[in-house]
Protein: Gluconolactonase
Organism: Actinomadura physcomitrii
Amino acid sequence: MVANLETVASGLVFPEAPRWHEGRLWVSDIPAQEIVAVGPDGVVERMHEVPGRPGGSGWLSDGSLVVVSANDTTLVRFDPAGRRSVYADLNGIVPARLNDLIVDAHDSVWVGNLGFEFAPGSRVRPTQLVRVDPDGAAAPVGEEVWFPNGMAITPDGASLLVAESFAQRISAFPLQPSGELGPRRTWAAFGSAPVPCDPVEFMAAAVMLPDGMCLDAEGAVWVADAGGCRVLRVAEGGEVLREVKVSTGDRGVFACMLGGPDGDTLYICSSLPMHRHAEAEVSRNGSLLSLRAPAPRAGLP
């Protein structure tokens, strides 16, 4: 049964990578090539243009916003005055387009990439996260991951959680004092182990495609299922505590974020699937939905 959700904002194209920041929900509207912020009154304010298509974003300790510019494989920085500059150029470091990122408490930026490009004859391949240090140095880190998507950092700063869409799992990596990632442990598994395969066939058969996610104060994860038109609240170990069905298949769900005045409003990004982006740009029926969650936000982002 489709859940009864409140519509917070509409008229977007493909909202993704939601972040709660200073009393508003900031969202990357990818095909529209802009970052928008939505206030409690539902008013959408266009904050920054990102012609390379924005992905994940996060704030540095000086108040600057760092955003993925997916198509040109860079991170762009907007200082508090709104001035834009290139923060890191990852061409030659990653094998495919960038997607999400997270900024930790030490201003290191952890960046994901697809690992492969969607094209006829392409195969799903693993990749690595990239860590961009405050001095601009960037390098791949950690074990192989399969289509890393949403990320979260636990409240104690000890672990980085990564939604591996094409592994159907959430993995946890210790954040070591050296800045390296420790060995993976499976935080929650939803389907079979990853193997190189045709991406379209994999998505059609997948049990769960974990995408954008966030942590709550009870240690659970809210995670979007990009293939299932739903969000799940999941406990470590994989127990599904709650399922929220957003549509019967005509709309996708790609990310979620806890926020609001008390931190217990779950915001959900919903739109037509990405492969229908041309239609979405005309219809602009992407929206932000919400519901009251049982526990407030915790950790990062």
Q: What stands out?
A: DSSP finds two helices and 25 strands in the chain. The mean pLDDT is 93. The radius of gyration is 17 Å.
